[in-house]
Amino acid sequence: MSVDQIFEKLEQNFNADAAQGLDLVFQFDIEDDKTYHLVINDGTCKLHEGPHDDPSVTLIMNSETLQGIVSGETDGMQAFMAGQLRAEGDMMLATKLGELFNMG
């Protein structure tokens, strides 16, 4: 699965109910691919290619780690502890990804 396809799947598995009242930007710096960001605004989710001017949190990983997390094979917290995933900005928001997207 390409990185583009992974992000399309993520967008399709968005849980709008969990995002009511939220205004966040999740940026994904994929080390062996491109940078993407997801804008979550009051129950909507929009995927954009490229960096955002002011992301709420930036997650840095390679495409293999991204695929594992989105497929549910890799636990995001374990990837973080193992150094496969780094976060900049509001790190607590990274824990919300599991609520906002149906992984696996």
Automatic annotation (TrEMBL):
<dbReference type="InterPro" id="IPR036527">
    <property type="entry name" value="SCP2_sterol-bd_dom_sf"/>
</dbReference>
<dbReference type="GO" id="GO:0005829">
    <property type="term" value="C:cytosol"/>
</dbReference>
<dbReference type="InterPro" id="IPR003033">
    <property type="entry name" value="SCP2_sterol-bd_dom"/>
</dbReference>
<feature type="domain" description="SCP2">
    <location>
        <begin position="8"/>
        <end position="101"/>
    </location>
</feature>
<dbReference type="Pfam" id="PF02036">
    <property type="entry name" value="SCP2"/>
</dbReference>
<protein>
    <submittedName>
        <fullName>SCP2 sterol-binding domain-containing protein</fullName>
    </submittedName>
</protein>
